[in-house]
Design goal:
This protein has 151 residues and is mainly alpha-helical. The protein has one domain (2-135). It is built from seven helices and no strands. Helix 2 (33-44) crosses helix 4, helix 3 (49-66) packs across helix 4 (79-96) and helix 4 (79-96) packs across helix 5 (101-112).
Length: 151
């Protein structure tokens, strides 16, 4: 539920959270699955999936480096997971038609904020550890109810 994420407590806390992430001031520990979902929904509110992805990819890569990580063949940024979640979240927001950016983030957190296992249901292999999937988009090979936007 969105209320379990302090950064989504209000429009102001959400804007401050996104500003801290984009300016590379967010603590590594605060870049959780829910934070990823929120950042995606924040931009998907008024961008299509491709434009949202184009915003998220370099921002995630820069953040990873800023907290001491590296974007390599085996760690850091993951192309397939980023695109997968972007498609899923943007598709969900198209369905719910949120009235504000904050409502969009809360709707995405309500649906996806606690569901880290969704890719495990959409892929027949360990997509998280797959080197090819980390480097390039690999479409899901399993149908998942409610995810027609991901293909």
């Amino acid at each position: 539920m969105a209320t379990a994420h302090p950064f989504a407590a209000s429009p102001e806390t959400l804007d401050a959270f996104i500003a801290a992430w984009r300016s590379l001031r967010l603590a590594k520990a605060d870049w959780t699955h829910g934070a990823h979902v929120a950042a995606c929904a924040y931009y998907a509110f008024d961008h299509d999936a491709e434009a949202t992805f184009a915003i998220l990819k370099p921002a995630i890569q820069a953040f990873n480096v800023s907290v001491g990580g590296a974007n390599t063949a085996t760690s850091g940024y993951h192309e397939t997971l980023t695109r997968f979640w972007t498609l899923a979240i943007a598709g969900h927001l198209t369905e719910v038609r949120a009235g504000s950016r904050w409502d969009a983030v809360r709707a995405a957190l309500d649906r996806f904020g606690d569901d880290r296992g969704l890719p495990l249901r959409a892929y027949s292999f360990d997509v998280v550890r797959d080197v090819r999937a980390r480097a390039e988009w690999v479409a899901p090979d399993r149908a998942v109810d409610g995810l027609s936007a991901v293909a």
